[in-house]
């Protein structure tokens, strides 16, 4: 599977096009400006891809700024964990609170839960519910490819923010990382919502939040 990453908007939010055999999933919608949106569309065009899935790791504003554009361009709705629906439906209010502008999405989301499996170009993604940074955070795991899209749960040398955001939980966040992400194994490559690509092995060894190096995050 080929993974193309983009980093867009003032929050420096990653989005990914994951494709194989001409089928593509778009993971998160951080393309905010028309120039950013054109970059994504050009990539899809140049590689002659059919977008089969639009997926959100969670519905924070920085991940949904391009939803309206992608919904209409690729004529489909986004998959989102059901607990993210209120955030999605209040996109305009979220934007106002963070001082950004948005073309609000118009379609209802498709509920995405741990019972679901999504297949993209023959690659199966299972869904892990990994709340804490937000109630709706999910991680998409393709075991056969050793890749996972984890949104704002686990970053290189950091973890998802829990201060100044609604409905966060430090206990849930740490449980999501320790009981759902770390067991994916050291070889698993992590494509996060912000910052560089990393691996479970690297973060298990070096992430200060997982190694008793940050006050308040000791085991
Ligand atoms: Zn977030
Ligand atoms: Zn984010």
TrEMBL record:
The keyword Protein biosynthesis does not apply. The keyword Ubl conjugation does not apply. Keywords: Hydrolase, Metal-binding, Zinc. GO terms for molecular function: hydrolase activity; metal ion binding. Its cofactor is Zn(2+). Transmembrane segments: none annotated. Residues 12-194 form the Metallo-beta-lactamase domain. This is MBL fold metallo-hydrolase. It comes from Longimonas halophila.
């Amino acid at each position: 599977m080929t993974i193309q990453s983009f980093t867009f908007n003032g929050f420096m939010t990653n989005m990914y096009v994951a494709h194989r055999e001409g089928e593509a999933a778009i993971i998160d919608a951080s393309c905010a400006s028309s120039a950013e949106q054109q970059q994504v569309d050009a990539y899809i065009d140049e590689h002659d891809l059919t977008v089969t899935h639009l997926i959100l790791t969670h519905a924070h504003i920085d991940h949904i700024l391009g939803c309206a554009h992608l919904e209409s361009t690729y004529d489909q709705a986004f998959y989102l964990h059901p607990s993210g629906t209120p955030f999605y439906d209040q996109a305009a209010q979220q934007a106002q609170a963070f001082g950004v502008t948005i073309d609000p999405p118009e379609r209802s989301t498709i509920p995405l839960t741990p019972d679901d499996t999504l297949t993209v170009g023959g690659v199966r993604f299972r869904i892990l519910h990994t709340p804490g940074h937000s109630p709706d955070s999910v991680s998409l795991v393709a075991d056969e490819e050793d890749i996972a899209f984890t949104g704002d749960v686990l970053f290189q040398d950091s973890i998802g923010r829990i201060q100044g955001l609604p409905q966060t939980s430090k206990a849930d966040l740490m449980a999501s990382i320790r009981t759902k992400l770390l067991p994916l194994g050291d070889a698993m490559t992590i494509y996060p919502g912000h910052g560089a690509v990393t691996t479970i092995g690297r973060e298990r060894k070096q992430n200060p939040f997982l190694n008793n190096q940050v006050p308040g995050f000791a085991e």
